[in-house]
């Protein structure tokens, strides 16, 4: 199995797609909540936190990538064993650093042979092109 690592433009496009999906989910949840009277603010906050903080780690750990990754033909895998997905805890840890570092994390992609961003290095993950049939 020859591994082709995902390039920066594919990863940025995937991130953009995922951002639009999260915004749409939050908007949809807001519209649904608007149908009810007196929804406490803490309910809105919890929904926002759940969509924002769990979308990426859940999809990465369960499916090996988010909807954006899938649309771009890339997947997140274990750096030591690329046949395996990363577990939820590693995906969450990876996501936290991805959010904390922002675009700075992506600056390292062209600086190493596995094209790992800082959050990939921290999460011991790689992002690879889906296998072509």
From TrEMBL:
Pfam families: RDD
Keyword list, A-Z: Cell membrane, Membrane, Transmembrane, Transmembrane helix
Domain RDD positions: 8-124
Membrane-spanning intervals of the chain: 12-36, 42-67, 88-109
Signal sequence interval, chain numbering: none
Presence of keyword Transmembrane helix: yes
Topology relative to the membrane: Multi-pass membrane protein
Keyword DNA repair set for record: no
Highest taxon of source: Bacteria
Subcellular location: Cell membrane
InterPro entries: Pra-immunoreactive, RDD
UniProt-recorded name of the protein: RDD family protein
Species: Aureibaculum flavum
């Amino acid at each position: 199995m020859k591994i082709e690592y995902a390039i920066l433009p594919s990863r940025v496009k995937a991130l953009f797609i995922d951002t639009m999906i999260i915004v749409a989910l939050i908007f949809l949840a807001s519209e649904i909540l608007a149908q009810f009277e007196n929804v406490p603010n803490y309910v809105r906050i919890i929904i926002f936190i759940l969509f924002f903080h769990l979308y990426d780690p859940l999809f990465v750990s369960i499916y090996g990538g988010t909807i954006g990754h899938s649309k771009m033909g890339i997947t997140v895998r274990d750096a030591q064993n690329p046949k395996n997905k990363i577990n939820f805890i590693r995906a969450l840890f990876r996501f936290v650093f991805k959010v904390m570092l922002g675009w700075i994390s992506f600056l390292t992609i062209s600086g190493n042979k596995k094209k790992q961003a800082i959050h990939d290095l921290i999460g011991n993950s790689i992002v690879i092109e889906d296998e072509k049939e």
